[in-house]
Design goal:
This protein has 459 residues and is an alpha/beta fold. 44% of the residues lie in helices and 13% in strands. It has 2 domains: 183 residues, Periplasmic binding protein-like II (D-Maltodextrin-Binding Protein, domain 2, 3-Layer(aba) Sandwich); 153 residues, Periplasmic binding protein-like II (D-Maltodextrin-Binding Protein, domain 2, 3-Layer(aba) Sandwich). The chain contains 20 helices and 12 strands. Helix 19 runs antiparallel to helix 20.
Length: 459
């Protein structure tokens, strides 16, 4: 789950993700249907994964890992770390990081107690850690795993000035819409292929007596994801790259068009569960529960977000593939269905044997397999056995991500300076929350976005 970052002078994504070129849809063949069991196992691989990489003996050494993950995500990541402990003999400590994580790390570094490794969920955060001279380059063993298991695009996202610092352990396909199958059936709706059909499906769900969508407006990153998917599909990848680098202003007509399109959903009375005020008080996990708790009478019929939704669904009585299904974010304005991705990278903050061993482990299929078995996770590791994923829905999401290779776009807000795209209560997050409250004020939102962006990029 994406979180927030900021500290001192923001270092933005000055080098755009140039490896990520024009996109089509991340096809989700079979994701709307039941489990096909095409890998010969309905529940994914069980037990500890077979070791594919040799790790050093770290008995007597301590390794600390900072991350902002909580709830189900933290629980399964701890299982990943436990396997590392068993294989190396190291004593691993999970350090719960507060938002924003860069600010948290700054305080740890200033106090002389930085963690060995930090999980950074923004591309710009890696550059900032390098600029602050906190980050250590990956060692030769970790580099071997990256070269063996990762496409060039994912490696480049973890590099600064040609030197590798980050290991992208967790990816996210952020162009998915999940729906309650009972609600969809009762409404007589269908999986939409384009925005107009999406609004028609939403109307059908509304007419059946249920709010069409649950929006986690309390967490600004979800609203940036809504905007980015509409914008990428409608304006196209070239404009997307230009806006990400602030080569065009947020007052550009393409932004006006995207916000107006998004307002067709946000501004329609009864379409957002709890209305704007309710949405602004809804955090991500609750937005999923609003869609899948209550059988065929939940608070909402659909929820937009990435593959991590499946992990949140696992904490309800709903089952992915039967009670919960998924379709690609609909194409907007005659464009392609968008393919927006995010990710969390492991970065060493200490030049220690334990830190480098953990990076090596996280770059291998061994670590990825543990979380993949649990669900709610997609790995950019191309050598992870697809059969490890617990069901056909998640296998297809993973296959689509790997098959896309470099044909994707990285989350735009994660490419911008943290002061603009990753700060609670400020910048893009705050402006889009205000827009959710008043989606008719497109011009005001554009002006506020441009003012915040201009300041952040200048700083």
């Amino acid at each position: 789950m994406r979180t927030t970052l900021r500290t001192g002078k923001a270092v933005g994504m000055r080098r755009a993700a140039t490896a990520f070129v024009a996109v089509g849809a991340l096809a989700l063949a079979g994701c709307g249907g039941g489990d096909t069991g095409d890998e010969g196992k309905d529940g994914g691989g069980g037990g500890a994964p077979k070791a594919t990489v040799q790790l050093p003996d770290l008995k007597g050494q301590k390794v600390s890992v900072a991350a902002v993950w909580g709830g189900a995500e933290r629980k399964v990541f701890l299982e990943v770390l436990e396997q590392f402990e068993e294989r190396t003999g190291a004593e691993v400590a999970f350090v719960p990081a507060q938002d924003p994580i860069i600010g948290f790390l700054e305080s740890k570094v200033a106090g002389g107690e930085p963690p060995d490794v930090a999980m950074l969920p923004q591309v710009g955060a890696i550059e900032q850690a390098v600029a602050n001279k906190w980050a250590k380059p990956v060692g030769p063993e970790a580099q071997k795993q990256l070269d063996k298991n990762y496409a060039d695009g994912w490696k480049e996202l973890g590099a600064v000035d040609g030197k590798q610092y980050g290991v992208y352990f967790k990816a996210a396909n952020k162009s998915l819409v999940w729906y309650n199958t009972a609600v969809m059936k009762n409404a007589g709706g269908q999986e939409p292929k384009n925005w107009d059909a999406f609004l028609e499906t939403s109307q059908a769900i509304y007419d059946s007596g249920i709010a069409p969508v649950s929006v986690a407006g309390a967490e600004g990153w979800t609203l940036t994801d809504w905007f980015e998917n509409v914008y990428l599909s409608q304006a196209g990848p070239e404009k997307y790259d230009q806006l990400a680098k602030h080569e065009i202003k947020w007052t550009d007509p393409s932004v006006k068009k995207a916000l107006s399109t998004l307002g067709e959903l946000f501004g329609k009375k009864g379409f957002v569960a709890g209305g704007a005020q309710g949405a602004l008080g809804t955090e991500f996990p609750e937005s999923v529960k609003q869609t899948f708790v209550g059988g065929d009478q939940p608070k909402a019929g659909m929820v937009f977000e990435g593959d991590m939704v499946s992990l949140a669904i696992s904490e309800t009585d709903a089952k992915v593939g039967t009670d919960a299904k998924v379709f690609p974010f609909p194409a907007v304005g005659g464009g392609d269905s968008p393919a927006v991705v995010g990710g969390d990278a492991a970065v060493a903050l200490k030049d220690s044997k334990g830190a480098q061993a953990l990076l090596t482990y996280l770059a291998s299929p061994d670590a990825a397999a543990i979380w993949a078995q649990a669900g709610g996770f997609v790995s950019p590791n191309k050598n992870l056995d697809f059969g490890t994923y617990p069901d056909a829905v998640q296998r297809d999401i993973a296959k689509a991500l790997i098959a896309a290779g470099d044909d994707i776009r990285f989350d735009m807000s994660d490419q911008t300076p943290q002061a603009f795209g990753g700060t609670p209560g400020k910048g893009e997050w705050k402006v889009l929350q205000d827009f959710l409250k008043n989606p008719k004020d497109v011009a005001g939102a554009q002006a506020a976005l441009e003012a915040a962006a201009a300041k952040a990029y200048k700083d």
